[in-house]
Structure formats: C-alpha cells, structure tokens
Amino acid sequence: QVQVVESGGGLVQAGGSLRLSCVASGSIFSINAMNWYRQAPGKQREFVAGISRGASTSYADSVKGRFSISRDTAKNTVYLQMNSLKPEDTAVYYCNVIHNWGAYWGQGTQVTVSS
Questions:
Q1: CA angle 84, 92, 86 (to 5 degrees)
Q2: Residues whose CB is less than 8 angstroms from the CB of residue 57 and which lie 6 or more positions away in sequence, other chains included
Q3: How much is the pLDDT for 85?
Q4: Predicted confidence (pLDDT) at residue 28 exceeds the cutoff of 80
Q5: What is the average pLDDT value for the chain, to the nearest integer?
Q6: Is the pLDDT of residue 29 over 90?
Q7: Residue 12 class from Cβ within 10 Å (0-12 exposed, 13-18 middle, 19+ buried)?
Q8: Closest Cα partner for 79 from 16, 17, 6, 28?
Q9: Three-state DSSP state, 50
C-alpha cells in the first residue's frame, strides 16, 4: 500500500508562483513514476507533469516553460514549481503514484489564481 499526500496549494495572483509537494509513504520501493494531474470545475482531470524512476520528466504543453517537476528521493517527495501562473491554472491538483501494484492518488490540493 502507498499513501500519497499533497500540500502547498493556495490563492495567488496571476503572474505569481506556488510550489506543490507530494509525499509518498508506505511501500515506496516499487514506485515507477510520480505525476501531477489537475481538474478544473466542469472539466476532466488532465496530466500536468511527471517524473520517472530514472528522473525523466514530461510536461503538458500548456505548462511547458512555466512549471517544473523535481524530486527529493531521500524524502520520497516530488515537487511542482509553478511560475507565471494564469487564471486558467486554477484547479485541484492531484499527485499520482505509479507503483508495481497499481496507481495511487492523493486527496488533492486547491490552487486558485486570481486575475
């Protein structure tokens, strides 16, 4: 079993920055990748960024150049640095852990960007 907890959301003005954190605990040795997704009201959940076991990263086109994903292996933590935030980035952000046993999700953290 893997527990996933996100933090760091909040209210920020357009152009501002936030850093989200995702801590994985439990059976962490078989984690293959950790991703960030987001879901805005009335929209489907969408991929934002991901980092693999080998530290390869990938980003949605909508966030390239503004968001950066990184990890601290010693702390079992993945970060999402979000810069130049836009009102359309407003959503609940979810951390997703891809494990040998399946996929695990956190409860989400709200990010609200005011114009």
A1: 20
A2: 49, 50, 51, 69
A3: 98
A4: no
A5: 95
A6: no
A7: middle
A8: 6
A9: strand
d(CA 37, CA 55): 18
pLDDT in tens, 32-74: 999 999 999 999 999 999 999 999 999 999 999 999 999 998 8
pLDDT at 1 over 90: no
For residue 84, is it left (φ>0), alpha (ψ between -120 and 50) or beta? left
Contact 57, 85 (CB under 8 A): no
Q: Are strands 31-39 and 46-52 parallel, antiparallel or unpaired?
A: antiparallel
Given a contact cutoff of 8 angstroms between Cβ atoms, the answer to whether 87 and 71 are in contact is no
Dihedral (CA of 102, 2, 30, 94) sign? positive
Element (H, E) at 33: strand 31-39
Both structure tokens of 6: 């996100």
Percent of the chain's residues with pLDDT above 90: 87
